Amino acid sequence: MSSTSCNQSAQVSAYVMQALPPDEAVAIEVHIASCAQCRQELEALRPVADSFVGWPTDILRCCHRPSTGTNPHGRKSRRESSAS
Fold first, then answer.
1. What CA–CA distance (Å, rounded) separates 33 from 42?
2. How far apart are CA 9 and CA 72, in angstroms?
3. DSSP helix/strand/coil, 10
4. What pLDDT digit, counting tens, does each position of 18-54 carry?
5. Which residues on neighbouring strands pair with residue 76, listed in sequence order?
6. Which residue has the higher pLDDT, 55 or 40?
7. Are 38 and 12 a contacting pair, CB within 8 Å?
8. What is the mean pLDDT of the chain?
9. For the chain, what are the domain ranges?
10. Which residues 6+ apart lie within 8 Å of 11 measured at CB?
11. What pTM does this model have?
């Protein structure tokens, strides 16, 4: 295993969830083809993403909102709390 870490992890996660715009999806596909670490991460994430297929879309949408500083339960997110 390489001692260096690839900085494309978030993009790979978004890609596996089909949350990237088409141009970014193509770019990450090219990257994944040349990065063993990202290929490995993609293969690890794919079963998780596939398990969401059976979930009702309203449940998935409730948790994927643009950051407003609060989570779906109305509390400040950790990221927003630490920035204050």
1. 11
2. 24
3. helix
4. 889 999 999 999 999 999 999 999 999 999 888 877 7
5. 70
6. 40
7. yes
8. 75
9. 1-64
10. 20, 24, 28, 31
11. 0.59
d(CA 28, CA 13): 10
Buried-exposed string 3-40: b where 16+ CB fall within 10 A, e elsewhere: eeebebeebbbbbbeeebeeeeeeebeebbeebebbee
What angle is formed at CA 26 by the lines to CA 21 and CA 29, rounded to 5 degrees?
120
Which residues, in sequence order, are bridge partners of residue 70? 76
Q: Is the pLDDT of residue 70 over 60?
A: no
Report yes or no: 15 and 25 within 8 Å, Cβ to Cβ. Answer: yes
Q: What is the CATH number of domain 1-64?
A: 1.10.10
